[in-house]
Design goal:
The protein is of the alpha/beta class and 1189 residues long. It contains 20 helices and 24 strands. The strands form six sheets. The protein has a six-stranded antiparallel sheet with strand order 2-1-4-5-6-7. Strands 8-21-22-3-23-24 form a six-stranded mixed sheet. It has a five-stranded mixed sheet with strand order 13-15-16-17-18, with helices on both faces. The longest helix is centred in the middle third of the chain and has 170 residues. The protein starts with a strand and ends with a helix.
């Protein structure tokens, strides 16, 4: 596996997409400081999953995104892709090429991809585990980090060696197994608690479950019998209903048939009455026609008589005129006499006409009166016939009501008798149930009183427990808080103490001297200056700043002790240190006066310390000429006042040096030694006080807990008693409820029966009232019918008399009309005579001629009149003939009317009979309907019980297929079952399911515990196996690496020796791994005594030793040879060349020797401010250009 290419876009100083192609061998990346070379190694580290921003040389992860320049905008994301050739399947992937990509956005979102597919960071780590490229790998060494590999306390060394040993995945698996083991332990604790709780419940639930199962079995049997009996009742009711419905259908059919026949009879009767009325009207019309014809004939007869009279008068006139013509001697006196005689006759005739007209008017008035009476009589007959029809209908309805009421009364009376018998049977049962109910209620009240007493006692206990619990809880919280505080402070003390013991922060040389002193190898070592002095916390910063690096100076007894220590450091190349011999270090007196008058002056630094008297000279020499002030302004003022002749330090660590220079800013890396010691002492005092307070609180808490436990025990006892009483109450309530239900059922049945009885009585009263009302209506209608029949008979007689009177009146009227017409004609004739006489008298001279003409004219008129008489006689004859024919029709109609009246009478008789028949059928129908309704109520009651009790429809109940052979036996069995169920008392039906659930859960939990314990055993075995494999493999690889380390060290140092040493060879996986090196010609016991270049070369030797044993696919070294001289650089470069057979190297360097060994060079420049660019150059081309070939 080799690294083929690195693609970057938006990563740090590479905003544009940048691709670096790598070949086998050595690729060198060169460029000036700050050009962005190290960003390439950071990119590789980042894409492989690095999460530490410190390692990536940033403060937050967003810093990896290009932040922009004055010419360019900041980008929104960074992306890096690593392309690997996996043809040898060095990675756990079936792809020949593997591309790993990481993308990060400014919003904080992050993406990982393998071959373009999104994955997890864990997948990246697992992909590169044990390849040397993982997060604990040795393939990448950052800038300035090479020396850390061989430092005294390097934890990175073990991680690197484990990665090289190939046990990282074993450690990962062991850590995962340990985590699962911890989870298993937690699960076991939790499951055992649950199992204990289930064990306490399963026993009581079993008893309740068995009782509930017995109850359910009895209930199921009871249910079966009840359903079967109710189905039997329903089937019986249905059969009765079907039979009743059949009877009702027959009775209803008969009733409807009778009703239809009655309607038909009434319709026929109405038609007969209407036909008689129509015939009567027709007769009246015909009689009116005859009267009008006779009247017209009489008028014609009158006209004929008048015409005849006229002819006779005209003949007389002719005779008279003829005589007058012969009697030419007539005188005027005779004419006058004739005129007077004619006028006298006219007056007499007119009087007669008036008398006749009066007679005629009287006759006409009498006739009109008769005609009006006849019309009124016909209307009355019609109205009476209609009333008779209506009365017949009402009479029939009243009789039906009476019959129905009587039938209903009989049915209800029988039902009331049945109800009374049932109520009498229920009274004894109710009386017995009342006694049982009173006894059960008394027991329940007694138990409730006992429960109330227990609850009152419990309330008192709970109040006491509440107050005690609050007190105990408060004490517990205080104890927890104190315990936590003590733990935190002890942890802090331990941490600070460990730091102090391990001399953390001190130079390696100082650490070596102190450790060798403790081992007894170096004598006369008193300790570091920081270990020998103390100061209040508020002055610690000032004192530490004033001392500076001197705080790490080692105080020794004398010069010999100092000399031995220096020789030790020299021999072991362990670095350099400053020693303060008590015999040689002297202080100089401080003679400046007036400092205490300066504003802000605290004191001289040596006065602010606590130390042993033997160290006074040393303290005075270091701090005797250093003043401490509160702030820098006052310090400047003081320094100016005393012309910068001594050092001044502020409380926050700013320094005004003698001579005028100033040092300040943030605290130096050596800060905190005094504060650490001071803090440890302060924390120990605080912990002692807290522990004392904890003991006091703990004693109080124990007393409160004991008191609470005592009261809790009393509470538990009282609760147990209460539970027992409550169980008895539940049982008593169940008994009472059972009795009450039975009592309620019995009283409910009685109430229902009473209500039904009252309803029946009301119905009887209503029916009796309806019967009486029907009797009254029948009596009234019968009387009205008789009255109307009487009126009808009288009207018929009166009508016949009126007909006779009308005929007689017609004859009188006709005779008077004839007489009046004759008199009018005579008057006209006399008037003519008068006129003729007058004319004759006036024209007597022309008399004869006129008379002749007049005679002729009269004769012509007579001829015309005779002709008219003939026509009038024909008309009169025709009218009389029509009248005769009409009289025959009238006689026929009168006969037909008589037949209609006879038919109407017969129909009315038949109607009365049908009405009586309908009344009987109506009564029977009402009785049948009442019986059917009673059966229907029984059926509905049974069906309702099915649903109310068992939520079953009739169809669902029938589908159960329950059949009973012996109904009375089934009823007795049902009664026995109810008694058995009642005897069980209170039953917790839910206990069956609850017991089943708890049992299943108990078994499941037991199985789970067994499985977890088995899993725990397997995990422990796995951990032991992994630990064994890890130890074995690490021991073997460690041996090989150690051998190679010695060889590589000799090769690079041209001699000498080096080895890796385990602190505890028995615990190879956890113990510290130290490095011992001996460069040629030197006797160095501690690697920290080596120079920087020697440390770097030793670290490189360790890297190469690891690569020899476990070659990494590629390595990226960032200026690891920076501390080496040119000779060692050449050695380093040639050694890298020798290692290229198994490993690909990318070297970031400034050194010429390294560049010369490179197969390819990448130059990194920053022509544009803040933007890195690459320049690729093959070494052969570069050598040719430089003329080095």
């Amino acid at each position: 596996m080799i690294l083929k290419a690195l693609e970057m876009q938006g990563f740090k100083s590479f905003p544009d997409k940048t691709v670096l192609d790598f070949g086998r061998g050595i690729t060198a990346v060169v460029g000036p400081n700050g050009s962005g070379k190290s960003n390439i190694s950071d990119a590789v580290r980042w894409v492989l999953g690095e999460q530490s921003t410190k390692t990536l040389r940033g403060s937050k992860m967003e810093d990896v995104i290009f932040g922009g320049t004055s010419q360019r905008k900041a980008l929104g994301y960074a992306e890096v892709t690593l392309r690997l050739d996996n043809a040898d399947r060095g990675l756990n992937s079936d792809k020949d090429d593997v591309a790993v990509t990481r993308r990060y956005y400014r919003s904080g979102e992050s993406e990982y991809q393998i071959n373009g597919e999104t994955c997890r960071l864990r997948d990246i780590h697992e992909l590169f585990m044990d390849t040397g490229l993982g997060r604990d790998g040795y393939s990448m060494v950052g800038q300035g980090r090479i020396a850390d590999l061989v430092s005294a306390r390097s934890t990175q060394r073990r991680d690197m060696l484990e990665e090289a040993a190939g046990i990282s995945h074993f450690r990962y698996r062991r850590a995962d197994a340990n985590r699962k083991l911890d989870q298993a332990e937690e699960n076991l604790v939790r499951l055992r608690d649950i199992l204990s709780e289930l064990e306490s419940r399963i026993g009581p639930l079993k008893i309740q479950s068995e009782k509930a199962q017995k109850f359910l079995a009895l209930s199921d049997e009871k249910k079966t019998l009840e359903i079967a009996l109710w189905l039997h009742t329903i089937e019986k009711s249905k059969n009765g209903l079907r039979e009743q419905e059949h009877k009702l259908s027959v009775a209803s059919s008969q009733y409807d048939q009778t009703e239809n026949e009655l309607v038909e009879l009434i319709s026929q009767m109405e038609e007969a009455i209407k036909e008689g009325q129509d015939i009567t009207v027709e007769i009246e019309n015909l009689r009116r026609f005859i009267s009008e014809g006779e009247e017209s004939a009489a008028v014609i007869d009158g006209r004929i008589a008048v015409e005849k009279n006229t002819i006779e008068h005209n003949n007389q006139t002719i005779e008279r005129l003829s005589g007058d013509m012969g009697d030419s001697e007539s005188s005027a006196a005779e004419i006058d006499e004739q005129i007077e005689a004619a006028r006298a006759e006219i007056a007499e005739k007119e009087k007669l006409v008036e008398a006749k007209k009066e007679e005629l008017a009287s006759a006409l008035e009498s006739l009109n009166s008769l005609l009006g009476k006849n019309s009124e009589n016909s209307e009355k007959v019609r109205e009476i016939n209609e009333k008779l029809t209506e009365s017949a209908m009402k009479l029939a309805d009243a009789r039906v009501k009476k019959s129905t009421a009587q039938s209903t009364v009989n049915e209800l009376t029988a039902r009331i008798a049945d109800i009374d018998r049932v109520i009498d049977a229920r009274e004894d049962a109710i009386s017995s149930l009342e006694s049982e109910k009173a006894a059960a209620q008394k027991v329940l009240n007694r138990l409730k009183d006992e429960a109330a007493e227990h609850e009152n006692a419990l309330d008192g206990y709970r109040m006491i427990i509440g107050s005690r619990s609050d007190k105990a809880e408060k004490l517990r919280k205080e104890l927890d808080s104190l315990n936590l505080d003590i733990y935190q402070k002890n942890a802090r003390i331990k941490m600070l103490d460990d730091l102090e013991k391990n001399l953390d922060g001190y130079a390696g040389s100082v650490q070596k001297v102190i450790k060798e002193s403790k081992r007894g190898f170096l004598r006369g070592i008193r300790g570091t200056l920081s270990q020998l002095i103390s100061t209040p916390a508020e002055y610690a910063v000032a004192i530490e700043t004033a001392l500076g690096a001197a705080i790490q100076n080692v105080v020794v007894d004398d010069e010999n002790a100092a000399k031995k220590a220096i020789n030790y450091l020299k021999d072991n190349r362990a670095g350099r240190a400053t020693f303060l011999p008590l015999t040689s270090v002297k202080s100089r007196p401080f003679t400046e006066k007036g400092l205490e008058k300066c504003e802000g002056f605290v004191d001289m630094a040596d006065k602010l310390l606590e130390y042993g008297g033997e160290y006074a000279e040393i303290i005075g020499s270091l701090l005797g000429r250093t003043a401490v002030v509160d702030n820098i302004d006052n310090g400047i003022a003081m320094a100016k006042k005393f012309s910068y002749r001594f050092k001044i330090v502020t409380l926050d660590g700013q320094v005004l040096n003698a001579g005028g220079s100033m040092t300040g800013g943030s605290r130096g890396s050596g800060a905190g030694f005094l504060s650490r010691v001071t803090e440890i002492e302060a924390l120990k005092e605080t912990v002692a006080e807290l522990e004392k307070k904890f003991d006091e609180k703990n004693a109080s808490h124990k007393a409160a807990a004991e008191e609470l436990a005592l009261i809790q025990a009393e509470l538990d006892a009282s609760e147990a008693e209460l539970v027992k009483v409550q169980e008895n109450i539940i049982r008593a309530e169940s008994d009472l409820k059972l009795v009450e239900d039975r009592y309620a059922a019995a009283t409910g049945q009685v109430e229902e029966l009473e209500a039904e009885k009252e309803h029946a009585k009301k119905r009887i009263e209503e029916c009796n009232a309806a019967d009486k009302q029907a009797d009254g209506e029948i009596e009234i209608i019968t009387a009205e019918t008789e009255r109307l029949n009487g009126e009808l008979s009288g009207l018929n007689e009166e009508k016949e008399n009126l007909d006779k009177l009308r005929e007689k009146s017609d004859e009188v009227r006709n005779g008077l009309n004839l007489e009046i017409v004759a008199l009018k004609k005579e008057i006209e004739s006399n008037n003519e005579t008068v006129e003729n006489c007058l004319h004759l008298k006036e024209t007597y001279s022309l008399r004869n001629d006129r008379l002749i003409a007049e005679i002729e004219e009269i004769r012509a008129k007579n001829a015309e009149t005779e002709k008219a008489i003939a026509e009038l006689e024909a008309q009169a004859a025709q009218l009389r003939s029509g009248a005769e024919n009409t009289k025959e029709k009238i006689e026929a109609l009168v006969e037909k009317r008589t037949e209609c009246e006879a038919k109407s009478t017969a129909l009315r008789t038949a109607e009365r009979e049908k009405t009586s028949e309908r009344e009987k059928l109506g009564g029977e129908l009402a009785r049948l309907e009442e019986r059917r309704n009673s059966m229907q109520r029984e059926l509905e009651t049974a069906q309702n019980k099915l649903y109310d009790e068992y939520q079953l429809s009739l169809r669902e109940a029938a589908e159960l297929g329950i059949v009973l052979d012996d109904i009375p036996k089934a009823q007795r069995t049902l009664h026995e079952l109810k008694n058995k169920i009642r005897a069980l008392g209170n039953v917790n039906v839910g206990a069956v399911e609850e017991y089943k659930e708890v049992s299943e859960r108990f078994e499941y939990m037991s199985t789970q515990i067994g499985d977890i314990e088995k899993s725990k055993t397997e995990l422990i075995k796995l951990i032991e196996e992994l630990t064994g494999k890890m130890a074995e493999r690490f021991r073997e690889q460690f041996r090989r690496i150690n051998n190679n380390f010695g060889e590589t060290f000799r090769d690079l140092f041209d001699g000498g020796k080096a080895e890796l040493v385990l602190d505890d060879p028995q615990d190879v996986l956890e113990c510290n791994i130290n490095i011992r090196v001996q460069p040629p010609g030197k006797n160095v016991q501690n690697i920290d005594l080596l120079s920087g270049g020697e440390k770097g070369l030793a670290a490189i030797a360790l890297l190469f030793a690891i690569l020899k044993v476990t070659p990494a696919p590629f390595c990226i070294f960032d200026e690891v040879e920076a501390a080496l001289d040119d000779v060692n650089v050449s050695r380093y470069a040639s050694y890298v060349r020798n290692m290229t057979g198994n490993t690909q190297f990318i070297l970031i360097t400034h050194r010429r020797g390294t560049m010369e060994e490179a197969d390819m060079l990448y130059g990194v420049t920053m022509q544009e401010e803040g933007v890195s660019k690459l320049l690729e150059l093959k070494t052969a081309e570069m050598a040719k250009k430089l003329g080095l070939e």
